[in-house]
Amino acid sequence: MKKVNRRLRVIENRPLSPEVFLLTLGSEQPLPEIKPGQFANFLVENTNDVFLRRPFSIHDVDFSHNFIKFFIQKVGKGTEQLSKLKSGDTVDVLFPLGNGFTVHCGFDTSTSSVSGNRNAVVEPVETPATLLVGGGCGIAPLLYLAKILNQNGIQPTILIGGRSKKNIFRVEEYVKYGNVLLITEDGSLGEKGLITEHSIFNQQKFDQIYCCGPEAMMKAVGRLAMRKNTPCQISLENTMACGIGACLCCVTKTVDGHVCVCTEGPVFDLTKLKIEN
Description:
The strands form 3 sheets. A 7-stranded antiparallel β-sheet has the order 4-3-7-1-2-6-5. The chain has a 7-stranded mixed β-sheet with strand order 11-10-9-8-12-13-16, covered by helices on one side. The protein has a two-stranded antiparallel sheet with strand order 14-15. The protein has helices spanning 77-82, 142-151, 171-174, 200-203, 215-227, 261-264; strands at 4-15, 20-26, 39-42, 54-57, 60-62, 67-73, 90-97, 130-135, 157-162, 179-184, 191-192, 208-212, 232-235, 251-254, 257-260, 267-269. 40% of the residues are buried. Strand 5 (60-62) and strand 6 form a beta hairpin. It is 15% helix and 31% strand. It is α/β, with parallel strands linked by helices and 277 residues long.
């Protein structure tokens, strides 16, 4: 898949909370093919102490306007600098990187729109019950995934969890593409408890699970999927400075040995990861 290095223009930088912002970037050239689950690497400029690029999941794509959206949490100097970008500023971005989600939607994926081919015509075979699980800022890659699934005739169930209602964002966007369920650890929004304690896991059997979030949450979802014998894909959130497998910042251990998450992932099939049942 083609990778490009472009200066993208800031269309909007909208704070969603003191710690989270939604960054919309525009490209003067048509966007390349982008799969849900892929990411982009940002060069952080105008600073003397941030040297490595910062990776961010692609949150949403608007091919008609050549816009890409990123859902970003401020966690350090790099993201703090990016949060100060203003409309009209430009930023150096390398994208799309990595391997995204493999979409099992009951279609012939060689001709479907799962890879951004918006003009394809497909015939449905069967609609699988699909669950998207996102914890905290792990919701970032799931909006574009939900959109692509929806375009292919699937209305997924989307389970979003957080510590409290202050950690739940963009629900109004996710409900456009699926049935949204919420859970918070303090019970301030939706059901109360950890994300794997949501009642949906006992109420419905799913044919496919997609998951992204904190490591402990993803391992818990993975163990639950293994017990239920449900196929599951997990998007890892490792540090991926170069995005091309050169810096070795993101090496992780899999059943096939140590691999670079930025090139072999960030999305992995659960069977490839070392998660004990």
